[in-house]
Amino acid sequence: MPSRSVARLLAGLLVCLAVALTGCAPTGAPAGPGTGAAPGASTPSRARTLPTVPAARLPAEARRTLALIDRGGPYPYAKDGAVFGNIEHRLPPQSRGYYHEFTVPTPGSHDRGARRIVTGGGHEIYYTDDHYNSFRAVLR
Predict the structure, then answer these.
(1) Residue 46 near residue 137 (C-beta atoms within 8 A)
(2) In the record, which residues are listed under signal peptide (predicted)?
(3) d(CA 91, CA 135)
(4) Closest by alpha carbon to 65, among 29, 93, 100?
(5) Is the separation of the CB atoms in 8 and 22 below 8 Å?
(6) What's the mean pLDDT in 59-77?
(7) Which one is catalytic: 101, 110, 123, 124?
(8) Which residues have C-beta within 8 Å of that of residue 139, sequence separation ≥ 6?
(9) Which of 35, 112, 45, 111 is nearest to 66 (CA)?
(10) pLDDT score of 67
(11) What stretch of H or E contains 136?
(12) Catalytic residue among 88, 123, 124, 131
């Protein structure tokens, strides 16, 4: 039978292990297409340096584009779903093919306009209304 000090040590180690494992447990899936993330989901860690916007506060056209992304299309523009190269380096650096862009129609524009949603491979979503000059991480 182990002595009391050994038993206390083992109990302390088990408590520390439980605390450490709890701290590592995921608190929910990252917000993004197809995840079913609840409104108010936290910002993915790779997007924390950017301003944020709740999905509900996006323009109606952007919310419709998000719904199309969630459904997997069909998309109205041939370039929707194309790889976004992040050549402006406004989003966190990732390997080519990580980001994909989708058009958000701009009322009154005769072309694709300046608004886009960019999705990341980690299920994050970004919105720009100034043709990639700035981005906001979308919270869902």
Answers:
(1) no
(2) 1-31
(3) 7
(4) 100
(5) no
(6) 96
(7) 101
(8) 31, 39, 40, 41, 42, 43, 52, 53, 54, 55
(9) 35
(10) 97
(11) strand 136-139
(12) 131
- pLDDT of 49 reads 81
Q: Which residues contact 112 (CB under 8 A, 6 or more apart)?
A: 77, 79, 103, 105, 106
Q: What is the 8-class DSSP label of residue 91? A: S
Q: What is the mean pLDDT of residues 108-112?
A: 88
Q: Is the pLDDT of residue 31 over 60?
A: no
pLDDT computed for residue 4 by the predictor: 60
pTM for the structure as a whole: 0.68
Q: What is the pLDDT of residue 14?
A: 44
Tokens 């709890």 sit on residue = 22
> Quick one: pLDDT at residue 44?
58
Active site residue 88: no
Residue of higher predicted confidence among 83 and 39: 83
Task: Report the chain's terminal Cα–Cα distance, integer Å.
Answer: 54
User: What are 140's two structure tokens?
Assistant: 């869902």
Q: Exposed (0-12), middle (13-18) or buried (19+): which is 64, by Cβ within 10 Å? A: middle
Per-residue pLDDT, 110:
87
Does residue 63 contact residue 55 with C-beta atoms inside 8 Å? yes
